[in-house]
Structure formats: C-alpha cells, structure tokens
C-alpha cells in the first residue's frame, strides 16, 4: 500500500455522514462494534450519528438520531447488550415508515447506514436501499425535500454486521455475541455439573436457537454431553430407546450424572417439537432417574462480552466503515464477517438467501441439505460430537496400535480437553492409548500408564494439565526414552504443548539418525497461553488467558474511572510474543500496548505520555497501558511506571499491576474446549493413518519429514506441517514465529485509542461470493 493510500484513509470520510443502529435481539459485542464504527468514522473525517432504538428511531427521527463524539463511546466496550437500544419495529416494515426514515436521513445528509443485527434486520436494510431513489422522488414530489437535497443524497450505502447469539447467519463463521452466549451457557453447565454429581442426577438444559442448533451443538462438544437435540438433525425414530440406553450405559461406566442439551427449536423427523419437559418425562418414566430441567432463556444474551466478541465487534466495525466509504452505487449491500481469522465482505442478499434456504430445507424435512448449507464448520462440529458421544468403544484390540499422549511446556487451559478427545478417539479406533506424566521427563523415567474410556471422564472443563507438564527437552535422555518406547511398544506420539513441544519435536527428528526407536510418527498440538508456536495462528489456552486479562483490565478500569486521573500499567505474559498484550489491548480498550515485535524508543514513550496528558483534559480521565513481559530489556515495567509517574506529576497518578500466573489458570473458555477437542480428534485420525503407512515387516519405521508434524490452524483450515519445514519460519532466540498474522491488527488498536496514525487497510477484505466459500475450505 502506498503512502498516498495511507494518507487517503484519514480523508476518506470528509464530507460524508454515517449512521449506526442496532436492531433485532441484542447480542454481547454490539457495543464494541458501535464504538469502532464511531471512532474509525471520526478518524476518517466523517460525521457519525447514533440511531437510538433501532429502526424505530430511524422512523421517528428527532432526538433519536444524534451525532456521536469520540468520548460518547467511552467505557462501552465491556458492556453487554446495546447501549443505543434496539426495538422491534412494525413501522419500518411499511413503505410509509421507510419514507419517514428516508426523510430523516436526507435532512441530515446521511447516506451511509451501518446496521448491526440479525438476518431480519439486514433484509430490511436491503429493501430500504433498493427503494431509495423511489422514496426520494416521492419526498421531492410532496415538497418535503428540495431537488438539491435529493441530488446530494442520490444513493444509499448499506453495510451489515451480524449480531446474533444463535450464530444462525450463513456465510459468517461467528456472529457477534455467539462466543459470549457460549460463555454464559458453559458457566451454567459447569455449575450444574457439580450439583448433579452430588445427587447422581440427570439434567436437561434448554438453550436458545429456534432454527439453529449451533449453541446446543458447541455446548455439547464443550461439556461432553450425553445427547444433543438440534433442529438441523432430528434423531432417528427409535430415539427414545437409544437415549435411555445411552444414559444407563454412561451410568454403568461409573459416571454420576447425565447431561442432555436441547435447542429450543428441537424437532423429530416429522417436524414435531421435542421439548425439555418431554425428555424429562421420558427419563423419569423409563429409567426412574432423578431428572431436572433448566431453561437458560435470556441469561444467554446477558453479561459482559467475551474477549473474542469485543475483538470481533471492533474488527468488523473498522471493516464496515471502510466498506461504506469505498462503496459506489454499483456495489451490492454487503455484510462484513469473519472467515477463519480473516475479515471478508459478502453480498448481503446472498447470505440472507442461504440462511432462508436452511430454514426452508428444515421445513421441507430435507435435513441433510440443511446441515450442508450450515457450512463446513457446523458439519465438522457435528461429526466430532457424534464420534465422541455416540460410539461404544470397541472391545477387541485386534490390529490395534499403541499411541502415547503427553503434555509439554507450561500449563494451558484446554490441555485436558485435548488429551480427552485424543484418548477417546484412539480407543474408538481400537487402539491402545497410553498417557505419559510430566512430559519428556516422564517418558524417560517411564511414568506411563494405559488410559481407558473413563480415565478422561469430565476432563473437558478442567483447567491446567492433569497429566502434569514440564519444560524439559528430550535430547539429553534419548537413551532412556528409546528404551521406554520399546518397553511400552509405543508406535506413535501425540505431544500437546507450547514452544518446547515444537522444539522437542525437532530434537526427536534429529535423534532419529542415532536411534531407530525414535522413528515413530508424532504430532504436536499447540497449547500455550503465549500463542507462539510456529505453524498455527491460534494455540489452545490463549483464548482463556485473554479472557482472564480482559476481566482484570475491566475491573482496573472501573477502579480508575472512580478515582479519576489515574493511569494503570499492566504487565502481561507471553515471553517475547506480543499476542496477549495486543489482543487484550484491543479487547480492553488500552491506550497503548508495548510489545517486542514492534520496537519502541524513548520518543514513543514520550508520545504516549503526552497523549495521556491530553486525554486527562477530556471527560475520559483514565488510562490503561499494557506491556508484554519481555518487550524490552531496559524499558521494564518499573521503568515505564517511574517514567509515567514523573511525567504525569500533577496531571495523573500511575499504578502498576503484574498479572503473573493467573493467566495460565482458570477453567477453559468454550473456544479452547472446542478447539482442543477438535484438534485432538484430528490429530488421532492422522496418527492412525500415518502408523499404517509406516508399518514395514512387522514394525513401525517412520523416517520421512511428514511423519513429524505440527497440527495448526492456518487462516481458514486445520493443516499438518512437518516440523522440519517450520524451522525457517522460526526465530529460535526469541521463541516466536517470524511472521505473525495479528500484527496487522495493531493499527486498529492505535486508532481506537485516538492516535493520529496511518490506517493501513492492507488487511483488505474484497467482496467474495458465498457459494464459492462453501466448498473451498475447512474451518475449525
């Protein structure tokens, strides 16, 4: 991108006006999107207006449409719901209402509309756009607007952001609010699990999702539910017998509870609703279990948005402003959304059409088609869920292999979920699965035992590492390790861990030259809060750490808002990797985030202090600065604290906070549970194939580069990459990948904190088509 284009972003909006509204059901993270639209709009020189109470406010006009300022969106980021209000609106469905709405916009010179809502709200926006010129003609004929005004507002640009907790919008991987709704559900499932275990109860939990089973499905994956009912895939006709059999089998395996998840729109093959009460009565009459129903209802819409939703809302808000200001009369109304971790623009009506097609397919009882239309990610969730829940582990061990699973490095939330799915998928395949305690050290010392099905029962929701984990590398104990590989007949190794897991993998590859025993396939599943493993955009545990930092920053900001004129300096973990500091900065609304990857000088520190001095003159009298633990040897947290304290004398107080090891603990978030579960399943499937490939003359001999891989998420797909190929992409001294995707989100952080910088819109989302997106890639 050239310097001229850089400069263009700052002037892109001059003379333009944008209105932003939230409509339909509220969703956590809408406020983050509104805040980003306002601030980026102002940054480009545009005027931005809030429309209060959704479309109703657009129709009623008057005080409902108010100009927004930079400060008016302060402290909004961490609030759930929508601050500018949302209302169901009958008037806008009628042409008369849309006529009044058009009049209100033209009078204020607003020709750009950003709508945050569900598919209904977005369809309404598209109708409005297609009628625009007719509406203007009518207004001009009636003498309500002048020819001059009509000419100035000749076309209306519309961009949609999908805010819906159901994740029911086709074309987007995640809608704003979905992740937070999952957080609410999982908090409750975890709480219910403890009481159900005390009393040996069965719990039926009903979650939202009238036409979409996403929440129910991911919840079931994340908590290892015994059964899930979703509208897209009704159970077989004899489901009552099957369900009761499954529940009693779970009990005989030693479990003290059963959990059944029901989407509110669950139906049977004939389209007849299956209610939570029906299920309860069935279990009570047939099995006599003590059964309780919990309907979650509006709790799922409430509470503070998760880190993921804040970042999603902020990124989508930025992209929406760009799409609006670059729009021409010929560009179709688009939705901005996320695919993998990339921002994409999709034609609004194509997405709405596919979303409607799903509902129609379900109405016509074409359930397979409904599943396909939901996309790869949904299907993937369903397949893994079915594998982990619906299969009786095979009794025979004929033709089976022996695979060992271990944790390496520092603990990360979600490691146990990965171990659980690896062990269970291994058992389902008929393999013998061993677990190794305390990493490579345990492998050398022979701290190895066989794991059965119930060994990993209930592990999904537990933080830390149940197997024990150590940073020790394998090289110095190759002899003992080789001896144990032979002794326990280990034919494949699944290594779940951080940077040491990867470097350990490289050492195993080297060791193959001397020790034949090391010639067995291995796969590394990245699990570390630092998210610094080469070959993967995300690692298990980073999302949980991010949420922990976020919650803490929220509390600190609240304290600072009370005392006024206070700046907090917070040190985050991550080694040399600035992922946590940057993403937490985006999610918590920080003024600056110091990281190793973006070197800073005393002049930058001076600019930041000056920026805070200016900020104290506004109504927002508080500051939040994040510093990655190893961002600079000399500019330590203490140094920065002392500098700020000195320079801020008489203007603001400074305080410092080192977050420390709380970032490695806690119960894993829904994202980490789900991600870890799918990575474990995928790794084990690969492993069986690789072992079969390497079987020669009665033994395993794997000596090719592709028999030692890292399984990572890259952009939109889960891929296996040989560890030796990742060597070139690694900065070993600082234990980070040479290229990191999240660095391109740094400009957004600065703009939202009101820095005059060049917005590099090089992370440019071009308009894609939904049909092409369908088949092309596998998302997690």
From TrEMBL:
Active site: 166
Keywords: Acetylation, Allosteric enzyme, ATP-binding, Cytoplasm, Glycolysis, Glycoprotein, Hydroxylation, Kinase, Magnesium, Metal-binding, Nucleotide-binding, Phosphoprotein, Transferase
Binding site for ATP: 25, 88-89, 118-121
Regulation: Allosterically activated by ADP, AMP, or fructose 2,6-bisphosphate, and allosterically inhibited by ATP or citrate.
CDD domains in alphabetical order: Eukaryotic_PFK (cd00764)
Cofactor (UniProt): Mg(2+)
Phosphofructokinase domain residues: 18-323, 403-686
One GO MF term: fructose-6-phosphate binding
Gene Ontology, cellular component aspect: 6-phosphofructokinase complex; apical plasma membrane; nucleus; sperm principal piece
Binding, substrate: 164-166, 201, 208-210, 264, 292, 298-301
Ranges for region N-terminal catalytic PFK domain 1: 1-390
Residues engaged in binding Mg(2+): 119
Location(s), subcellular: Cytoplasm
Chief location: cytoplasm
Region (C-terminal regulatory PFK domain 2): 402-780
One BP annotation, GO: glycolysis from storage polysaccharide through glucose-1-phosphate
Protein's pathway: Carbohydrate degradation; glycolysis; D-glyceraldehyde 3-phosphate and glycerone phosphate from D-glucose: step 3/4
Keyword S-adenosyl-L-methionine recorded: no
Enzyme Commission number, as recorded: 2.7.1.11
Catalyses which reaction(s): beta-D-fructose 6-phosphate + ATP = beta-D-fructose 1,6-bisphosphate + ADP + H(+)
Subunit structure: Homo- and heterotetramers.
Family to which this protein belongs: Belongs to the phosphofructokinase type A (PFKA) family. ATP-dependent PFK group I subfamily. Eukaryotic two domain clade "E" sub-subfamily.
Record's function text: Catalyzes the phosphorylation of D-fructose 6-phosphate to fructose 1,6-bisphosphate by ATP, the first committing step of glycolysis.
NCBIfam families to which the protein is assigned, alphabetical: 6PF1K_euk
PANTHER family the UniProt entry points to: ATP-DEPENDENT 6-PHOSPHOFRUCTOKINASE, MUSCLE TYPE, PHOSPHOFRUCTOKINASE
Name under which the protein is recorded: ATP-dependent 6-phosphofructokinase
Species, as recorded: Cavia porcellus
GN (gene name): PFKM
